[in-house]
Amino acid sequence: MRTVAALAIGMIAWLASGTASAVPIGNLNIDVFASSAPNRFGSPSWSGYAANALNSLENGLGTTGDRNLSPTAYEVLNGTYMPGDVMVTSFNSWRGVASPGAPFGSEYGNRLHFGLHIVGDGATQFKLNDLTFAIHSSDGDALAFVGDFVGFDFDGTNSDRLLGINWGADRVKGGVDDFTVTGVGSALLSIDELMYVGVGNAYWPGGPGDPLTGQAALDDTAGYILANNVVITGSYCITGSNGHSYCDGTSLTPVSEPGTLAVLGMGLLGLGVMRRRDTMARLFEKA
Description:
Elements (H helix, E strand, L loop, with lengths): L8 H8 L6 E3 L2 E11 L7 H14 L16 E2 L2 E2 L11 E2 L2 E2 L11 E11 L5 E12 L7 E4 L13 E5 L12 E2 L12 E9 L12 H14 L4 E9 L4 E10 L5 H15 L13
Parallel strand pairs: 4-14
Antiparallel strand pairs: 1-2, 2-3, 2-7, 5-6, 7-12, 8-9, 8-13, 10-11, 10-12, 13-14
Helix pairs in contact: 3-4
């Protein structure tokens, strides 16, 4: 993966200000929506979640479903997240709870994804090949994930979470000449609209280097996130066919699940504060 140069100073200042996402920016409009997804590595619910996410992103539906009732629900996080939203595991868990009951018994935790919707104005198009991304966290950047989409085509294993549309010769969405792009080299094709489940990252309680396992590992990681007030930011930049660059992103601050502090106690919170970064393994993906 190629490393992306640091974002422009103006973009960094904008993200630090906490300004909401979904800001119209010239000839391309970029909306970024954070959401906590089932862990694609092993989850039987990923494809259902991804379908709900793409449908919501394309049609502006916002939250669809209830993730307290279904692991396929797509819930938009508006400025805050809970520790369980960003912890994937090698054992069954859901939103910070080990060995959860039905219908979550086969899940492997949750990953924070930054969903993306880009729309052109009918004249300005763009290419997936020119899109870059960045995830950062305020705890010494333990969740740093930065890169681009060079050669990351719309086909194969990417087709369930990426959708690119060319509006055809009439340059208007909804006409009979609209078509979705796919195939080898499709990252280089000009498109008018992109829906993407988003890049994601998560901590890995009980993973390599973690002396704890099961619920104890989940609780300790939750304590670490809350005690360090870990702010997580996701952003994208794209260059349009007009040669101009456009960026957008969103930041999330942690809040505790009901009863978290009472369950953890100051002992586990202390462990979280003292925890070394090399025990904070994480799993990220372009998905």
